[in-house]
Amino acid sequence: MRLLYSILILALAALPACLSVEVEQRDKELFVRADEFSKYGVAFSNTEKYEKYEKTRYLDGSVEITYEFEPPEADAAYLVETVTVEPKESDARMGQSIEDTAIDCRS
After folding, report:
1. DSSP code of 47?
2. How many helices and strands (H and E) does the chain possess?
3. What is the pLDDT of residues 27-68, one digit of tens each?
């Protein structure tokens, strides 16, 4: 019986805590993209060439989607946006609270 538990524990430990999944078009529509800044007088060329999307599904059922825009010009804007979807409201509120606390370190 101990051997069975040991094998089970090793099998669970080998499972990935997260998995990269395909980013769908509807995921991309969640973000304010670099090409949308042109209406505010900030224009970039070939924006799609410098965009990167990542989508990760975690073991707890949460999903994180990230948009990144990094043009080659050193003085250009660098954009990073993240959307996180949690399985429960309490998880979402706790995550937001942690984020707010980390950002509000002015004291």
Report:
1. G
2. 3, 4
3. 999 999 998 888 888 888 888 999 999 999 988 889 999 999
Residue 106 has pLDDT above 60, yes or no: no
In whole angstroms, how far apart are CA 59 and each of 16, 35, 46, 86? 8, 34, 36, 11
Distance CA 80, CA 99 (A): 15
Both tokens of residue 39?
A: 């209406």
Q: Write the single-letter amino acid at 36.
A: E
